[in-house]
Amino acid sequence: MNTMTLWHISGWQFAALALAALLVGFSKTAVSGANTVSLAVFAAVLPARASTGVLLPLLIAGDLLAVATYRRHAHWPTLWRLFPAVAVGVVAGTLFLVWADDGIVRVSIGVILLVMAGVTVWRRRRAETAPEPDAVTTRAGRLTARSYGVLGGFTTMVANAGGPVMSMYLLSAGFRKLGFLGTSAFFFLIVNVAKVPFSAGLGLIDGHSLLLDAALVVFVVPGALLGTWAVNRINQRLFEQLVIAATVVGGVQLLLR
């Protein structure tokens, strides 16, 4: 595996990864779409494919902190409807990684993120969303959940970029801020843990990557605490705008690299 070890990373590269790890914690407890910036930083410092294996344990650490913070706000009916479709997406993403090179991965994920952001903006301008996330109980809602679930599973397996896809779904389904964070916290903890055997089987996680994770995980905690402090100071409209903006920025970064 072509993963850099801690000793092969320069001081400024480690600082960039540490800042990205802090942003992982922040994104898990405040603005989910901001995680695409961390993805871009890791892929810029490390080989793109290998970076997904290094980032995954840090994401799980952030997920644990987010679950501890927002566990009472999760909407489990939505989660149960999403998981089967996500499993299909994870398997498809694993097969995709067997043959896809870094360039194909970046372009594919970047296009998906931008399309999802565009669709969400369009849908939110067309109609007001309900204050409670009950859209998934309709036939159209179930179809939408499955579509986003497959895309979320695929993108999270290929590049740990499932956050923006699921953010777009949860916003379009009418989730308020705390329900959004609680539902996404459990969703990504379960999905990211389930991804570990696949990533290890592809050689994306090994002793070297875990050593780097051990040095970076300490930066996830202050990021999560900062996010917990900030989320109570962000109103709903600004929260949604930040999630969409972070998704667009992440998609553009992937396409331009």
From TrEMBL:
It comes from the Bacteria. Signal peptide: none annotated. The chain crosses the membrane at residues 82-99, 105-122, 148-172, 178-198, 210-232. The keyword Nucleus does not apply. It is found in: Cell membrane. It is a multi-pass membrane protein. It holds the Pfam family TauE. InterPro entries: TM_pro_TauE-like, TSUP. Keywords: Cell membrane, Membrane, Transmembrane, Transmembrane helix, Transport. The keyword Chaperone does not apply. Belongs to the 4-toluene sulfonate uptake permease (TSUP) (TC 2.A.102) family. This is Probable membrane transporter protein. It comes from Streptomyces pyxinicus. The lineage of its organism: Bacteria, Bacillati, Actinomycetota, Actinomycetes, Kitasatosporales.
